[in-house]
Structure formats: structure tokens, C-alpha cells
Amino acid sequence: MIAQFEQERTRLRAIAHRMLGSFAEADDAMQEAWLRVERADTSGIENPAAWLTTVVGRVCLNMLRDRREHAFEMPDPVIDTGEEPEHRAVAKDQVGLAMLIVLDSLKPDERLAFVLHDMFAVPFDDIAPLIDKTPAATRQLASRARKRVQGRPQPNVGLPQQREVVEAFLKASQEGDLEGLVSVLHPDVVLRAGALEVIGGRNVAGRASTFRKYAVSATAQFAVIGDEIGFISRVGGVPFSVMAFTVRDGRIAAIHVIQDEEQLAALVP
Length: 269
Fold this sequence. Notes:
Elements: H1 2-7, H2 9-20, H3 23-39, H4 48-66, E1 88-89, H5 94-103, H6 108-119, H7 124-127, H8 135-150, H9 159-175, H10 178-184, E2 185-193, E3 196-199, H11 201-205, H12 208-212, E4 221-225, E5 228-235, E6 238-248, E7 251-258, H13 261-267
Parallel strand pairs: 1-4, 2-7
Antiparallel strand pairs: 2-3, 4-5, 5-6, 6-7
């Protein structure tokens, strides 16, 4: 079965990456799956590819469930003082970065059902045992996830207006202006950073000391991620964090932070 594992490695790693949103964690999951395969009695397995998908899926699901919320801390950014265009396009893989942001909004079981079925065509009958549900219930999970993906808040103003709102957000962060932050945040704004999720304008505004370090210079690097404004921080020209903002009706409805270095290297030019 180890030989089959190596043959399927590329596909299995792609599943792990979509599930976990991190290349480093995907590699950890692959290593754990490899150890499980090595120890397992595989003599009676008729469909090795499906069985290996199940093994990797179960490892990833356990990792998602075991994530613990942690303090929202990001390293100090190094702002590039060279000339930058007003909006720097994230052109290398806009769809990949945008999809990553969406997937992080799903619950572990939803994410498993959606990723395996919609992205890798795994039948619900094979997914159901991973989450201890019936195929019908698993189908409902995937449908719910699909609706959440399709119903994710979208910006309803142009890029110049989005940038004005984000600049106001960064200015208020720099000045430690709590009320100024609250005024540009939607009351139900959602902040996501890895395992951390913060909901509500005042709760997100309470993170002002964290955001303040990103507003230390007027030469901040703005980006366009799909049709949304983002903010890239780099060290020595290498991206090490991205903040993506969803602006609706003049307020920020969602903030998503990505910090995985390997992931950023693959997604951001």
C-alpha cells in the first residue's frame, strides 16, 4: 500500500492542503497518514485510492477539530519604502487565495464534505463514515457549505471606495482610536486568523493594538484580491502576511488574515 500511497501523493497532498489551508500542515497530515498506512493491515482493501483518501481525510478532520484558539499575534511588518502602484494585484493565484478565505469560514465537517465531494468528486457514501453521519446528512453538510461559499458577503462598492474605508481603519488603528475603528466596522464584522474567529465590531476593534503595527507608514502595500482590497506585509520583498477586507455599504464586513509563509509564497507574487 505504500507504493499506492506514493502514486497518489500529489492528489492526497492537494486534498490535505484544501482541508487545512496550509502547506506546512498538509505535509504534517501526509506524514501522519503515511504512518497510519504503514501500520495498517491493507490486505483486504479493494479500492486503495478511496481508502487512502479516507485516511488523509480523517487525519485532516482531526487536525481541524483539534485546533485551539490562540492569541492573535502577528510579527511586526517591514514596510517597503520603494514606490508601489496604488493597487498591487495578487495575480499569481487570485482564485486560490480567494477560495482559501472562503474555506476558512466553514466548520470542520462542512469543509470535509465540501472539499472531498465538490473539489475531488468523492462520493457521499465514502465521506459519511469519516464524520459518523449518514450519506444523506453528509449531502446536507456539503449543501450547507456550498450555500455559505456562494453566500459569502461580497463588496458592493468599487475599489477606490473600499480603499478609503480600509485607510480609515488603518488610521484609526494607528491612533488607537477605538470609536474610530468601531465606526468603520460593521456591527457583525467577522475577523478570522487561522483558528481564531472574532465576531462583532467592538470585539474586533479591541484588537487595535495588533492592527496598529500595520498602519505605521503611508507606504503600506495595498493589494487587489479578486475584487476586494487587501493589504500585504513583506520582509525583504517576501510576503509574510495578507489581510483581506470585505467592504459593504461603507463599512468593513469581514477581515481575513493569512500568515502561513509557504502558503503565501505559493499564492502571492
